[in-house]
Specification:
Layout (H helix, E strand, L loop, with lengths): L5 H23 L7 H9 L2 H48 L3 H14 L4 H17 L3 H11 L3 H4 L4 H14 L3 H18 L6 H14 L4 H18 L2 H19 L3 H12 L15 H12 L6
């Protein structure tokens, strides 16, 4: 995940710098209500003192502006380097090389301890790679460590982190904790943005909970069917495959018209997955693990 809205943030910073310049300039000007004695003293002061005072009045806001522009330049340069390094780790992630991706993101987290928005983004990416590498404990620990300061430093990321925690707990079979985090993610999304960006993660959690708690494949299939149009339109293949696996699993468990036909569909749906790409789904879910292993061992579809 790259840092979003960076152009808007830079523009806001520019406005803030200009506003600060104007405020300082105004404060340093002679007050409109200055006394006659003060004005007389100013007129009688030596020219060198006037020049020195004028230089000080100009130097402070100009220096502040130079420092501010320097900070913007350094931040933009650091941001470009951060995105370039993250792109390499994300390429490994897309190729299902989750362990290598996690190692790269761990290095990025160590290098970018500030600003907090960069650290939050790198930490979230690392947690996602840990999740896909079936390191659930480490993923939960990492997300829980950054979650408290997200509302202040990275509010746009706060709903996504809550939804990711919900997904982790759902995969572990803790439906109650998953539902609590879904409620938290939805509440956060309504405060900072429309809830649609986390809708896919919420559907994932609801489907997993339905399948793991009480074996409700029809309910899981219904949740996924309702969200499928948006999922298919907004996600690329590697992002969509976990949802296809869930949908196929629900159908094979009785959430479709024909379990046998659904199993064949599952094999076809998962044929494009790289070896081990979806293993994290069944890491702490024995039934899903058996289903994925069976689909992987089945002969590829003809035609």
């Amino acid at each position: 995940m790259k840092v979003k809205e960076r152009r808007r943030r830079v523009h806001v910073l520019w406005v803030a710098l200009i506003a600060a310049f104007l405020v300082i300039w105004q404060v340093l000007q002679e007050p409109a209500g200055a006394t006659h004695a003060a004005r007389t003293a100013n007129r009688s002061s030596p020219r060198s003192a006037q020049s020195s005072g004028g230089f000080a009045v100009m130097a402070l806001p100009v220096g502040f502006l130079v420092l501010g522009l320097g900070w913007v330049f350094v931040f933009q340069r650091r941001l470009r380097r951060f995105n370039a390094e993250s792109a390499l780790a994300l390429k490994l992630f897309s190729g299902a090389e989750y362990a290598a991706s996690a190692d790269r993101f761990a290095e990025i987290v160590q290098r970018y301890r500030g600003p907090r928005i960069l650290r939050a983004t790198a930490s979230f990416n690392l947690a996602t790679a840990r999740l896909r590498n079936a390191e659930f404990d480490r993923a939960v620990e990492l997300l829980s460590s950054i979650d408290p300061w997200l509302p202040r430093y990275a509010p746009a990321l706060a709903p996504t982190v809550a939804a990711e925690l919900a997904g982790l707990y759902a995969l572990r079979g803790d439906a109650a904790a998953a539902e609590q985090w879904v409620a938290e993610a939805t509440a956060r999304a309504q405060r900072v943005a429309p809830p649609r960006p986390i809708a896919g993660r919420v559907a994932f959690v609801q489907a997993v909970n339905a399948l793991r708690r009480g074996e409700q494949p029809a309910a899981a299939a219904q949740v996924l069917d309702a969200a499928w149009e948006d999922l298919d339109r907004t996600l690329v293949g590697v992002e969509l495959r976990p949802f296809r696996a869930l949908r196929a699993f629900a159908a094979a468990r009785g959430g479709g018209p024909s379990p046998r036909a659904s199993s064949a569909t599952a094999v076809a749906a998962l044929a494009e997955a790289r070896p081990g790409e979806l293993a994290w789904l069944g890491a702490e879910w024995p039934e899903m693990r058996a289903f994925l292993e069976g689909a992987a061992a089945a002969p590829p579809p003809r035609g």
